[in-house]
Amino acid sequence: MKKSKRSDGLVFSTGPVEINNDDSNSDEETVSGSAEVVLRIERKGRGGKTVTVVELRNIPSDESAKLAKEIKTKCGVGGKLKGNLLDIQGDQRSRIKELLTQKNIRVKG
After folding, report:
1. Could you tell me the domains of the chain?
2. How far apart are CA 46 and CA 43, in angstroms?
3. Taking the model in full, what pTM does it have?
């Protein structure tokens, strides 16, 4: 017998309900005005796989973690944040550049 997945959006809770009616866009992050990102492609040492390397400059570590998660989600690929370097699977330069320019982050490369 096959189990049916129910995805009608109903959520039951016993706690108090909080509704946020904030009109501001919560997806936009606040990073410093001198934030800068360098994009490059690497293939060496990766078994022939193409990897987009995103070097995050002048971005705090907590903001860079949020930004890395958003980049991976928007591109629909995996990746790894190591210090200020973010490795993204595949050639995602155009998508990442478009996303970062919308966030007013200067992009090189």
Report:
1. 36-108 (3.30.780.10)
2. 6
3. 0.68
